[in-house]
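Field notebook, page 326. I keep forgetting to write these up properly, so this time I am using the form the group agreed on. The chain and the ligand, xanthosine-5'-monophosphate, are recorded exactly as supplied. Prediction of the bound pose follows.
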Amino acid sequence: MSNNVRPETMERITTAALAEAFIAEQCAALKAQIGSKKVLLALSGGVDSSVVAALLIKAVGKQLTCVHVNHGLLRKGEPEQVIDVFRNQMDANLVYVDAVDRFLDKLAGVADPETKRKIIGAEFIRVFEEEARKLEGIDFLAQGTIYPDILESGPVKAHHNVGGLPEDLQFELVEPLKFLFKDEVRVVGKALGLPDNMVYRQPFPGPGLGVRCLGAITRDRLEALREADAILREEFEIAGLAGKVWQYFTVVPDFKSTGVRDNKRSFDWPVIIRAVNTRDAMTAVIEEIPYPVLHKITARITAEVPGVNRVLYDLTPKPSGTIEWE
Ligand code: XMP
């Protein structure tokens, strides 16, 4: 049997008890594989890398070094939460890399979506490589590969896959979640004590807010996007929509329109809301957000986010639109 086929006998992990059994089994396997050697993990704070980190902390503790690269394109509060959960609460070895200026400088003036993606991906590998070189005696690279990544059944890219490292940095891989489906990863994460807002997090693309700050990214527009996204997420939580809608986010295009504020004309950006439901991200339908929720979000975003004077709701299913705008 290939090493990449989920064993037929493997029971679907649906309960805390089954998760505990998986965790015990994996900890033993990880200890056997790693021994007294050292492991490196790129920890984005997404579900998969967070669960791998928590499992490895349980299995090998400080033999794991997590590297969290803040590329400036994460959602509000995410880098802080990674530091709080993994360094403060789980006492992990965590290297926090503030690479915000580096990424934003590289992206300045770049408007083409695929070029933006390439720059973000390549720069991420470069930063991770630099951090890896600073560490001594690493033998293993842990990755949050999950079964759908192996099956390649969907268009959701495995953004946690730190492929592309140079030859002399080819470590042996540690992939404890590679036979798990997403729902199972969440059950395991919950059993490992990770916070709900990490475990039940909606999908977030590797290039992050970079593909939602349309065209050439500017710092002020990126900040407006991050604030608007935080308001949207907060209001979805309050309205009980957070667990019901598969993916919801804001987009800020690179054009302005006229408005009026404090009896003066304004010339500011619009914020576009996108909220979709899907099974596999190949097609998607629009969530019918209640009007009172839309009104409240609109009022808050236009009042609280500098540089924004309009809020629009994208009613386009996939097809004809993609889920992201870039
Ligand atoms: P689209 O926009 O193609 O998105 O309908 C389908 C799903 O994939 C996510 N997505 C990405 N994920 N890197 C990622 O890791 C990317 O470059 C990327 N582009 C889109 C998107 O958020 C949605 O869940």
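OBSERVATIONS:
- The two ends are 40 Å apart (CA to CA).
- The CA atoms of residues 125 and 136 lie 18 Å apart.
FOLLOW-UP: compare against the apo run.
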